[in-house]
Amino acid sequence: MCQIEEYYYYSNMNKIYKQNNLSLVYPYYFLKYDEAMIVETLKKLNWQKASITSNSYWRADCNMNAIKQFFYNRISGYNEMEAYYGKMMKDQLISKDYYDKNIQILDQKEDILKALKATGLSNETLIKYEKYLTNI
């Protein structure tokens, strides 16, 4: 099922960007991981949160993740994180409570614009994104 999801996403992702005259931001990679074990290990090592993240102990891409999740949902019609956390719950890597707490559509327009501005995109590109996000 994962291959079908990824095929659908990657075969259709350019359409939404091209139709709206937007730039596609790359790359995004996926690895299976045990988040609770990672957080516990990092805490034992006295690991500090990355300064660019506000909602994760160990992931530095969380602000960019809002962009990815928003467009994944717009392209595929569902939130990729919901499917991903569902697989983790099925593998008993996370609890149902953790799943419920952490899935969301990530329709965080202000966070998306903030993250895009931090990438150094041109003003022209940022204006296109702002128009797109305010018209949906």
Question: Which key phrases capture this entry?
Answer:
7 helices
Folded structure, characterized:
The chain has helices at 2-19, 35-44, 62-76, 80-90, 96-102, 109-118, 123-134. It is mainly alpha-helical. The protein has a domain at 78-136. The two termini are 29 Å apart. The mean pLDDT is 76.
Give the proportion of residues in helices: 55-70%
What do the pLDDT scores average to?
A: 76
Radius of gyration of CA atoms, rounded to a whole number? 16 Å
Order of helices and strands: HHHHHHH
Largest sheet: none
Supply the helix-strand structural class.
Answer: mainly alpha
Q: In DSSP terms, counting alpha (H) and pi (I) runs of 4 or more, how many helices? A: 7
Q: What share of the residues does DSSP label as strand, in percent?
A: under 5%
Report the count of strand segments. 0
Q: Shape, please?
A: globular
Enumerate the spans where pLDDT stays under 50 for 5 or more consecutive residues: none
Q: Alpha-carbon distance between the termini?
A: 29 Å
Summarize the structure.
By secondary structure, this protein is an all-alpha fold.
Topology, please?
Blueprint: H1 2-19, H2 35-44, H3 62-76, H4 80-90, H5 96-102, H6 109-118, H7 123-134
Helix pairs in contact: 1-3, 3-6, 6-7
